[in-house]
Amino acid sequence: MIDSRLTEDGGTVRRRRECPQCSERFNTFETAELKLPTIVKSGERREVFDERKLRVSFERALQKRPVATQDVDSAVRTIINDLRRSGEREVSSRQLGELVMRELKNLDQVAYVRFASVYRKFEDVHAFREEIEKLERDLPGLENLQLSLLGETVTTRGKKS
Q1: Cα torsion for 102, 106, 110, 114, to the nearest 10°?
Q2: Are residues 14 and 71 in the same domain?
Q3: Which pTM does this prediction carry?
Q4: pLDDT in the model for residue 161
Q5: Rounded distance between C-alpha atoms, residue 117 and residue 120, angstroms
Q6: Rounded CA Rg of the chain
Q7: CA-based, 20 to 30 A from 86: which of 38, 62, 79, 154?
């Protein structure tokens, strides 16, 4: 072996090698095979973790929203890394859904509410209102930011903004 380096994402080792017989040089790439936990669905059905399904969940929630693909990729990687770090052999679909909601809350509040409405099975407008109010409490200043994006003016604490 001549040289060894980590790739940018830190998940792969690139090694530069030389054949002792013919002196030909070549690269090898080594990655650890880390198994992701099995997902336990409602009714105790078990499924192999599927990154594609995770991405589809993000895509549906973020449909027609101004979020960069790199940001979605980063959120998916964060969830996968969290699952690996957990060391668990099985994770409930509920826990996975909470991880998705955490990432969506940071990416886009509209997508977060969309996902929450399906995930938590909202039955009426009241459930939407409660979730939005909770989101506003969790993210101070969100209300003013969202309204300014719509081009509306609001009166806040006696002042017009």
Answers
A1: -20
A2: no
A3: 0.62
A4: 44
A5: 6
A6: 22
A7: 62
Distance CA(70)–CA(58), nearest Å, equals 12
The answer to whether residue 150 sits within a structural domain is: no
Q: Are 101 and 116 in contact (CB under 8 A)?
A: yes
Neighbours of 78 (CB within 10 A): 14
Q: Are residues 54 and 7 in the same domain?
A: no
Coil, strand or helix: which one is 44?
helix
Phi and psi angles of residue 98, each rounded to the nearest 5 degrees, phi first: -65, -35
- Dist CA 67 CA 132 (whole Å): 20
104 and 128 inside one domain: yes
Of 119, 46, 114, 111, give the one whose Cα is nearest residue 75. 111
In the predicted model, residues of the chain with pLDDT beneath 70 are: 9-10, 139-161
Q: What is the pLDDT of residue 155?
A: 42
- 90 with 83: CB under 8 angstroms? no
DSSP secondary structure of 23-35: --EEEEEEE--PP
Tokens describing residue 49: 């973790």
